[in-house]
Amino acid sequence: MKFKRILLKLSGESLMGNKQHGIDDQRLSEYAEQIAEITRMGIQVGIVIGGGNIFRGLSGAGRGFDRIKGDQMGMLATVINSLALSSALETKGVKARVLTAVRMEPIGEFYTRDKAVEALERGEVAIFSAGTGNPYFTTDTGSSLRGIEIKADVMLKGTRVDGIYTADPEKDPTATKFDEITYDEIYNRGLKVMDLTATTMCKENNLPIIVFDMDTVGNLVKVVSGEKIGTYVHN
């Protein structure tokens, strides 16, 4: 087994499946099944999930929402997704615990690193919601922070594409894929993998990232087993 403890970052958008917004039950169930499979292999799993399928703070600011209130709405969107995922995991027989960066008992427990690590060591999936609890930070930064705090071996960033490309493969047919790349190269090439705050945190704390296609069922098991899929990002 390649990794003992992982931080899985999921995008809210991918939860939409083929819908325009909200949560696609089929996609949610597929995600839960894949996560259940790796927890049964004995891997400790922490998860951060975005909220873009419900509300994005940044685009809200463009539509006239106050940026701070918009970001707070985005944080709440991540809590909705986290509750959905924890519920789906429990139907698969996996215990999950939702930890929130802002107090909102009884919906979730207030996050502390010790609580998170205890849950992981008991074999529960720890779902970290509400981002960092602060405006102006994305859920990418939230997942870098949580990954570093829980001392994860790797951050697995599940996306719609199968890795990092020289350009957006959905727009540019000539784009080629990197098997591996350094943080500096991402920065120098101006690639949109994660926001700079998140990338810098991973670089400075030596948290490697694997960007892979989470929407293909079976890929999560392949990644944690050390198969060469996706793009490996390192110092």
Poorly predicted residue ranges: none
Output the number of helix runs.
9
**Morphology:** globular
As a whole number of angstroms, the C-alpha radius of gyration is 17 Å
Strand content: 15-25%
CATH superfamily: Acetylglutamate kinase-like
Mean pLDDT: 95
Query: Residue share in helices?
Result: 25-40%
The helix-and-strand class reads alpha/beta
Indicate the multimeric state: single chain
CATH architecture group name: 3-Layer(aba) Sandwich
Main β sheet profile: 9 strands, mixed
Run of helices and strands: EHHEHHEEHEHEEEEHHEHE
Question: How many discrete domains?
Answer: 1
The number of E-state strands comes to 11
CA-CA gap between termini: 22 Å
Strand order of the largest sheet: 4-3-5-2-1-6-10-11-9
**CATH structural fold name:** Carbamate kinase
Give a quick precis of the structure.
This protein is of the alpha/beta class. The protein has nine helices and eleven strands.
Structure description:
This protein has 235 residues and is an alpha/beta fold. It has nine helices and eleven strands. The two termini are 22 Å apart. The mean pLDDT is 95.
Keywords:
11 strands; 235 residues; 9-stranded mixed beta sheet; alpha/beta
List the helices and strands and how they pair.
Elements: E1 5-10, H1 12-15, H2 25-40, E2 44-49, H3 57-62, H4 67-91, E3 96-100, E4 109-110, H5 113-121, E5 125-129, H6 139-149, E6 154-159, E7 164-165, E8 177-178, E9 180-182, H7 183-189, H8 196-204, E10 209-213, H9 219-224, E11 231-234
